[in-house]
Design a protein that fits this description.
Blueprint lengths: L2 H5 L1 H26 L2 H48 L1
Helix pairs in contact: 2-3
Length: about 80
């Protein structure tokens, strides 16, 4: 398994399940609006595909933010310990 896939396996699986759910909902809505199954499928594939990539990047940014916040909190705790010790 490529390093990137191995490193991001959980997020990739989550993104794939979100993608399937999103296409299903988008197709149902597009069919309700157009009444045309082929048109609904065509419309439903574009936006969720772009959205899946955006979701993956969104997850990565939030993970990075959480790691940075945890690092900042650890540094603050270490400073408190150093001052009191």
């Amino acid at each position: 398994m490529p390093r990137f896939v191995h490193k991001h396996w959980f997020t990739l699986k989550k993104t794939a399940s979100y993608y399937v759910m999103h296409i299903t909902v988008a197709a149902a809505v597009a069919y309700a609006v157009t009444g045309d199954a082929l048109m609904a499928l065509t419309l439903s594939l574009l936006e969720p595909t772009v959205q899946a990539f955006a979701f993956f990047l969104h997850e990565q940014l939030w993970s990075r933010s959480a790691r940075a916040q945890a690092h900042t909190e650890l540094q603050a705790q270490a400073e408190l310990v150093a001052r009191s010790g």
